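tool=predict chain=A
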Amino acid sequence: MKVYVVKRITEADFGCEDTGRNEPTALLYLEPTDAADSCEMKYAEVTEAVLAEQGIEEGKKVVFTESGEIRKYVRVVAAIIKDKTESGKDIIFATQRGYGEYKDGWEFPGGKIETGESPEQALKREIMEELDTEIIIEELIDTIEYDYPKFHLSMDCFWCTLVKGELTLKEHEAARWLDKDTIDSVSWLPADVTIIEKIKEKLTNK
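tool=predict ok
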């Protein structure tokens, strides 16, 4: 999937009557983020309502879905924090979102990668901000690509272990330790649910 940067937004040169649409449109000038495709400029005409709904602005990144729809591109990281019970059973830490459109949905803690950060740096910062604890980042499990109605999510999911500090909920409304048998007992957010089967494969019930 190619990611583009919105270099410029202008009003379309034609009115609504020429496009058959009943609302104003804008023309986006897009430049690939991959240097190998730097000469491949792309243009997209979208309604101003879409720009406002998705928060697409100059300098933001976008992608196109398989159906050709434009989506704001959001890149995040998630920590699959793993531990063991006294009996040796693998458990993972899940949190319940306490805000926003997807409030009450269950997810793996993490957040957006800021400019200049590596995924690992972003994940350590986010976990400290959200849970007030330090983690060791191990291997990448997978990168999830998921089209939400208002944005496209690209999520790097890492196995992690705790270093020190109590897991204190500073942003989420609830949390649970789940094992292989209970991991499906919560209502996962749509993107997070796509990684569950890969996580199950690595969990043991010893």
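DSSP finds five helices and eleven strands in the chain. The radius of gyration is 20 Å.
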